[in-house]
């Protein structure tokens, strides 16, 4: 690209009132409509040729990498779809059969005629190279997606200059979506594929009844009721302040990350990472939190126990982000990076009401803001295909009731939380509401996790024990109570 020399003497420079002193000689080429998109037409013909020559081998290999949309030539798209359809129906695949079907469906002209079908059949020297051909076709399709997505994002940047935050989130989501799709087929499945997936899942359940299908929480009765926390689910853990919801959620994270060796991410908007880690060490080592914080000297046995707990936590993959007032856009962006880099399998957010939305319409409406945050977290769970535990505050409704047990309607500020969540659990400790020492002693350590909503399972109260000195919840013997 050539420009006039900016170092030329002022007397020789053109007038600033004219066309300007710096003029482009060449136009940029990134948006040149005459520039062809990346493609590999010969590779597309090679894939189709292999599929026709050795359908029993090549069609399965091609289907692992390609869908009709990966082909650039419409005729190749149609022929690929037909070959897959014939193979799925168990019908013969050869040039004569394919040509007859094309004639019956009046598609022969669209694929170039009988000569084009015959030419494709003999195009590849050997069907053994089908994977190589398909990989090349897929790569070119990925490049076309990158160009299309970036071009649309550029147009959006010119047209929508007031909503920069949502635009950045959309751009990142689209680009990361291309990368994730490039790792394997993803998209809309046919009903037949959905049915077979459902049958496989049901058969697996029948073979191993009672097995945990999702991420096990480490709490026996809770896992039995939920089957673990499943990919795509948003799980709400709600309670009044100081009820222990952060400790309960971190106990679950500890069980998943340390005992099951599954990477987890924690977004702590309330507590610092240092405080969370101290809690984890005390909880796992079962050392009195107050004693440790007071700096009381530990004996040798307690010190060794603490060291072992700290070593186990250090070896785990728990990623803690304690950025205060984190926006839902930033949270989703960081979560995507962690998922891509470290393959995290669960996320915990502490807590929902401290998160914020950056959209203009939510600035003056708190309920709208909470609704956007809630729906954004649910969408993130589905996008990354992992469970997200979200802590939330309850209003004072329980304090006005005789039993003091919280209800689903006590969720603060927005009904959208209840609507978006797959599981809503309300943490309850009777000791919290005890009015005297006798009542407090009688209910000391007693806790209950009330599953008030579960899309795919039962509701009821899970009995727990809260060991306050260790900031730790444990299983308690007892039956599931009614809500």
Structure description:
By secondary structure, this protein is an alpha/beta fold. The chain folds into 2 domains: 32-187, DNAb Helicase, Chain A; 211-475, P-loop containing nucleotide triphosphate hydrolases (Rossmann fold, 3-Layer(aba) Sandwich). It contains 17 helices and 9 strands. A 9-stranded mixed beta sheet has the order 3-2-4-5-1-6-7-8-9, with helices on both faces. Helix 1 packs parallel to helix 3 (74-88) and helix 6 packs antiparallel against helix 7 (164-182). It is elongated and about 95 Å long.
How would the blueprint of this fold be written?
Blueprint lengths: L40 H13 L1 H9 L10 H15 L6 H10 L9 H8 L8 H30 L4 H19 L8 H17 L12 H7 L7 E6 L5 H15 L4 E5 L4 H13 L3 H5 L6 H16 L2 E4 L6 H15 L3 E5 L15 H19 L3 E6 L22 H5 L2 E6 L8 H6 L3 E9 L5 E8 L4 E4 L8
Parallel strand pairs: 1-5, 1-6, 2-3, 2-4, 4-5
Antiparallel strand pairs: 6-7, 7-8, 8-9
Helix pairs in contact: 1-2, 1-3, 1-6, 6-7, 7-14, 10-11, 11-13, 14-15
* Most strands sheet: 9 strands, mixed
CATH architecture designation of the largest domain: 3-Layer(aba) Sandwich
Parts with pLDDT < 50 across at least 5 consecutive residues? 1-25
Total number of strands = 9
Overall helicity: 40-55%
CATH superfamily of the largest domain: P-loop containing nucleotide triphosphate hydrolases
**Number of helical segments with 4 or more residues:** 17
Strands of the widest sheet, in order across it, are: 3-2-4-5-1-6-7-8-9
Calculate the mean pLDDT score and round it.
82
From the spread of the alpha carbons, the general shape counts as elongated
How many structural domains in the coordinates? 2
CATH topology of the largest domain: Rossmann fold
Structural class: alpha/beta
What radius of gyration results from the CA coordinates? 30 Å
Strand fraction band? 5-15%
End-to-end span in angstroms? 73 Å
